[in-house]
Amino acid sequence: MTAPQQPLVPPATAAVDVSALVVPEGASLPWFAAVLEHSEVALVLAQAQGVRYANPAARRLLGWDGSPLEGHQLSDWVAPEDRPRIAEQLRRRLGGQSGQFWEVQGLRRDGSRFDVRLCGQPVVVDGQPADLVTLFDVSETRQALRQAQWNAELLDHSEQLSRSGSYVLAWPEGRLRPSAGLRQLVGTLADAGAADPDEAWAWVAPEDRIRVMQAWREARPDQPFQLQHRALGAEGQWLQVVHRGVLHTQTPGDTPQGIGLVQDITRQHEAEQKVQTLAQYDVLTGLPNRAHFIQQLAARMQIARWDRSGFVLTVVELPQLQELRVTLGHEAAQTVLRTLAQRLQQQAQEQELVARVSGQGLALMGRAAPEVQPEAALEQAHQLRKWLQAPMLIDAAEVLPRCRIGLAMFPGDGQDGATLLEAAEKACALADEAGGVAFARAEAHAHALREMQMASALRHALERQELRLVYQPQVSLSSGAIVGLEALARWHSPQWGEVPPTEFIGVAERSGLIGALGQWVLDTACRQWVTWRAAGLQAPRVAVNVSPHQLRRGDLALAVQRVLLDTGMDPRGLGIELTESAVMDDPARAGQALSELRALGVEVALDDFGTGYSSLACLRSLPIDVVKLDRSFVSDLDSAPESMALTRAILTMAHGLGMQVLAEGVENEEQLNLLRSKGCDLIQGYWFSPPVAAEALAERLATGWRLAARHLSRDDGRRTLLLVDDEDNILSALRRLLRRDGYEILTARNGEEALRRLAEHPVDVILSDQRMPGMTGVELLHRAAALYPDTVRMTLSGFTDLQSIIDAVNEGAIYKFLTKPWDDDRLRAHVAEAFRRKGMADENRRLSTEVETTNALMAHVNSQLSAALDRQREQALLLQASVGGVREILDSLPLAVIGVDPDGLLVYANAQAHRLFPPETLALGVPARAGMPGLASAGSQEHCEIQGQACRVWRHRLGAESGAWRGDVLICLPISEDLCHESA
Hints:
This protein is of the alpha/beta class and about 1000 residues long. It is built from 34 helices and 37 strands.
């Protein structure tokens, strides 16, 4: 029999210990009455037929003082909802079972209720079984417990609502006891007994920890302190908190205790910071705004006046911003502007400041210099513009920003910040007519006057036949033949001499003369082609550029047909070139016009490809024969890996759509070889020929003018090996060794020479030394990997930095590292394996190209499938978010919630359960009876003991109403030990 726990009544009133009462055999009712009459504990003797005896203490407790209770039922004195329990407990006692303490709602004679604790003991009275029931009034204790629980819940809710937490600090040991709110706010805390400052204050940011501990060391009783610092949040994020503390003493002479309050003010702090930022900085770019920038300009001007220096103010505008908003959307346009701002920041040097000064304008305040050179400033501005206008990839569309730059100089263009900035902005407005960059000087007016005069002169030039055409060949890289000629207009003005095409064509566009100029070029080129054919020359196709104005007019095909009929030209001898931006301005209209041209038999080319923002879907729908790769890509092929990557992508895309690719602006052999190695079809540029007059061109065509065979695309099965070493004897030894394997061997003595060999010849395998003057082997192979990724690259060295080799191998720049001195047979085997690897890669690329063509046709189906999957994924995310929300709600409850499945396995425990019970008892997936037998067997609203903790348990059966039982949810409320003791 288990010894009873200490009862709730005071010890002085426990006159009769019922559990220790020795009842003689055959005891009668008078015997019990004599024993129990003077007990201060309420005692009732009940049998099946009703109450046989109630002592005075019981009558007083139940409100029947002075009145007999005999003949009543025990259940008459409890609330109706508890009467079944009373009857069941009485039945057990009459059956001889020992009882334990349990609580019900008592019912007094006047109908008032009170909390009563009962415990029955089976006895025999007059030979009949009876239940000796002990009653304790626990109303005050229970009310105090309820009030304490309410106070604790009120504190928890208050802390949650105010995003705060509190703690008690034992003084001076430093042990910290946190509240539940503080645990939820800052996550994992040290145990309540931890006195190590590193553990107790681990949630305080390291840089603030000493400050917090110092505040407590200097604290005085009843003198609060306050400070702000960072704290590590429950989810691992940094919070900004206000931390208040005070030393409090309950009675004089006692050791004080520290009381701390920590409140999360992160949002308030961020809002204050944001307000300060918004006042001086632009939200989109994070740059200083106009007002702040003008203040900085004024400060810079004052310094410049003191040291008699000057500086340049640069304003960069993106005039196509509104156009981008219409075509790509607001967010994409904002992304373009943000990227432009980032690029400008990257170019800014020390002591230079970048700002956003208007909706589409950025500004750069240059460094002060004793003397500002306008020529140098102009050159730097052009370089900056080129950098800023590099292509961007925005939402799968390639965009080439079109920037204009205005320059103003201090002190010449303004004496205060606002005036100087306005001068630079006015210069921006003139930049379009000045090649993209303009100064804020009187020369701008002269430029505008010159344009007016030039527009008038150009109108007369068409009438006076001052214009002429020259033709630049377009060459096939597979046959070497000249397959096309681009007709280019030239103007020799009696007033200005040779006027650059970039200047007079811009004037024609702005003055409305571009239509007449375009018609003249088309008519003249067609007549020249007919003349060549009449002279017996096999004249190639002539390509004519068409302006956006001609395309927008809507009768382009009709105008071309009219010229073909007038001149008698074969339509197959004519090509029409339209710029990418002109086509993308109105893809539907452009598609119709191009289809009509194709129906005539005219070839259609897309000019300046890569400088706009055309999409793959638009290109697939347009009848285009040739894509002309813009010269901006070609010029950087041998120096910028990103240009090579974009070129490869364009070639793959165009070939996948059945189009040829023509590269413009080929200026040297290195560019030619790179384009040829990537599968480019056609080239055009000064390397092969500058634009040529019609008469000179006829003479060259008559001689069979073509590209030399050594420059053509190779498919002859040759295997080329490039050896790179700065020692001649090493190169000679390697040549002798590897020549027997039938390789075509090239040699180079340094990295620069090796790059020239790669540009001049198609190379399969590179074998390079590591330590060489100027450029190491790793650096060489890194550049080769970027420019010629199809090569197989190996290094052969006896002296090297092993780590750099390992890094290069891991990054894919080096295929294999070999050491000197080498074994001849093994070296030959390694080289042979490299060529086998190259052959397999070439075959894979060929197959990949074929697959890409098929993939392009399946793009639409894939996009539809992707959209369907996105919808399913979104639904799954919504469901996941819902489940996460339920878990968050359960974790916030102050009650322990535990889930048990139909097989009795533990499947869920909320945060409070983990705080209440040891971790080993809450292992998910194990039988609940194993870790928590008391909980698993507890009924609804019963008391039980779980791991030494007295609890009250509520059980809810999931699906019980529908008949599909899915398990149980158990809610546990811990109670004090003196409210739930067991008795024999």
